[in-house]
Write a structure and sequence with these properties.
- The structure is a single chain.
- This protein folds into two domains: 5-139 and 301-356, Rossmann fold (3-Layer(aba) Sandwich); 153-298, 3-Layer(aba) Sandwich (Rossmann fold), CATH 3.40.50.
- It is 34% helix and 18% strand.
- It has 13 helices and 13 strands.
- A five-stranded mixed beta sheet has the order 3-2-1-4-5, sandwiched between helices. The protein has a four-stranded parallel beta sheet with strand order 7-8-6-11, with helices on both faces.
């Protein structure tokens, strides 16, 4: 296609570096003289014809996105059904695309977003409109297949490892007469990549974290309590890092709240307080717990430079792919060397990525199930290297940017989703 506009949207939980991808998309589109719009709040904004004209932003503002966390245009958790189940939504999207001459759609997200991009890439012929779609990777969970790592993960991994190392010094200082056990809960519903990254905080047997609980390994209460007691007796204190998605031997989440989100996923209530209560009740030890939650994925001040560079690279590649006529692909990270660490972006088919999940390999977990192996360190270490701090103002705080998000004039009737 020789002419048309590009529409970019963000989906799912945002990361510390997703806006670096947005900056790359906008800057690359400008270099190629392409008008780039953004959808407000992901695919929901596209359905509602709530589009943002990024051409109204200055080059300096777009550049500042590289170091600004959150989602500049808003995100969403909304999964399109199949065209057979809800044809009206697909017809509406095509109507919006046609009305605004949108020929390229870039959807920046994880597994469910890849599924949405794949579905949209397939409807052009069905509904008589030539639209090309690219899935752009983003997820702190690091669970997309066919990519060495996911933009967003390296920064949350760095935050996790640094936080564990720092809090361990605090606990060690207080252990003689106060707190003996500290439990930190991290994200990771089904895949233990973030939990594993905590293992980078220490290298020796006495170093924290002393226990890592992975969602891939059923939680054994007796074994866990024995290890906590043994660690406190040996070291004097114990730091535990637990994935939010750990399950009991029957396969039920320890922290399941009994509700589901927009994608049908079980809402998780809080592993850390549950484990803390267990330690307090069974071992009679003083225990503290922490739930970083959004802090771990929004901590741009301590982002990994490697991660920020990869986030920018996939955005740039996504625009270049559509200009080459590609459809239904995703720019993924290919590791070409471990030492020195080198990587590049390559296209991978969306139909081999959507609705699949990359779990933590068994070879990355120690035989006792509570730590990471040398193989895991070899994989994880390069992903947290380098610092890319934001600029700081006179008030001592990071200087982040907020887009004006100038709305594109609507041309169609309202649409109820």
């Amino acid at each position: 296609m020789e002419s048309g506009k590009l529409l970019y949207a963000q989906s799912g939980g945002v990361t510390a570096v997703i806006n670096a991808t947005a900056a790359a998309v906008i800057e690359t589109a400008r270099r190629h003289k392409i008008t780039a719009y953004a959808a407000r709040n992901g695919i929901v904004g596209a359905l509602r014809e709530e589009l943002i004209d990024t051409t109204k932003e200055s080059a300096a503002t777009v550049r500042a996105l590289r170091h600004t966390p959150g989602g500049a245009f808003g995100s969403c958790r909304y999964k399109l059904k199949s065209i057979d189940d809800n044809r009206a939504q697909y017809e509406r999207l095509i109507e919006v695309f046609r009305a605004h001459e949108i020929r390229w759609f870039l959807y920046n997200g994880g597994n469910d977003s890849a599924d949405t991009a794949l579905k949209l890439s397939q409807i052009g012929k069905t509904l008589g409109y030539d639209i090309r779609c690219i899935g752009v990777p983003k997820t702190v969970d690091n669970d997309l297949v066919m990519t060495d790592c996911c933009p967003g993960f390296g920064s949350v991994a760095k935050y996790t490892a640094v936080s564990v190392r720092e809090c361990a010094l605090d606990v060690a200082s207080m252990a003689q007469s106060s707190t003996k056990v500290f439990v930190m809960e991290v994200m990771g519903r089904h895949a233990g990549w973030i939990a594993a990254s905590a293992g980078l905080a220490g290298t020796g047997r006495g170093d924290a974290p002393h226990i890592i609980l992975f969602p891939e390994i059923p939680f054994d209460e007796t074994k866990f309590l024995e290890r906590v007691r043994e660690t406190v007796d040996r070291v004097g204190w114990c730091v535990v890092v637990a994935s939010e998605g750990i399950k009991n031997p029957e396969g039920k989440f320890l922290s399941e709240a009994g509700t589901t989100d927009a994608f049908g996923h079980a809402q998780l209530g809080g592993v850390a307080p549950a484990l803390a209560s267990l330690v307090r009740d069974k071992l009679k030890l003083k225990v503290h717990w922490a739930l970083p939650d959004y802090l771990q994925r929004s901590a741009r001040h301590i982002a990994s430079k490697t991660d920020a560079e990869q986030a920018f690279a996939v955005g740039k590649a996504a625009v270049e792919y559509v200009l080459k006529g590609m459809n239904a692909v995703m720019p993924v990270i290919m590791r070409t060397s471990d030492s020195p660490y080198r990587w590049k972006t390559v296209p991978a088919p969306l139909d081999q990525i959507a609705n699949r999940e990359k779990k933590l390999p068994g070879s990355f977990v120690t035989k006792d199930g509570f730590g990471i192996t040398a193989a895991a360190r070899k994989y994880l270490s390069p992903l947290i290297r380098g610092e890319a701090p934001p600029p700081y103002g006179k008030d001592g705080l990071p200087e982040y940017v907020v887009f004006k998000n100038t709305a594109v004039r609507k041309k169609l009737p309202e649409f109820d989703i």
